[in-house]
Write a structure and sequence with these properties.
The chain is mostly helical and about 110 residues long. The chain has 3 helices and no strands.
């Protein structure tokens, strides 16, 4: 009983992680400017990687490797949004204009 719940949770985490990763990839391709792309890459990709790493940690079980996976998960949650912020700030400081409604997409 517990094993089937664990397997169902692992599959759910994998599917949700895959969904967020695909949404992030589509957003990076489809969105019009660097600010929107940085936002979708940091938010959706962080969630996708987070759910995938949670599935890995559940698959491994109570082991030192699972603890390392959780530390990696924490590292991704901290660094991914920070990197997206740095990219957006650099674009802003270089004078990149944000896309606004009514403008042509480039």
């Amino acid at each position: 009983m517990i094993e089937s719940i664990r397997i169902a949770a692992i599959l759910l985490f994998i599917v949700v992680g895959l969904f967020f990763t695909l949404v992030s990839a589509a957003g990076v391709i489809r969105l019009p400017d660097v600010f929107s792309r940085a936002h979708t890459a940091s938010q959706a990709d962080t969630l996708g990687a987070g759910f995938a790493l949670a599935a890995v940690a559940l698959t491994i079980g109570w082991d030192s490797t699972a603890a390392k996976t959780v530390l990696l998960l924490f590292f991704i949650f901290v660094t991914n949004p920070t990197a997206a912020h740095a990219i957006a700030r650099a674009a802003y400081e270089e004078g990149v204009e944000p896309w606004t409604k009514g403008e042509e997409r480039r």
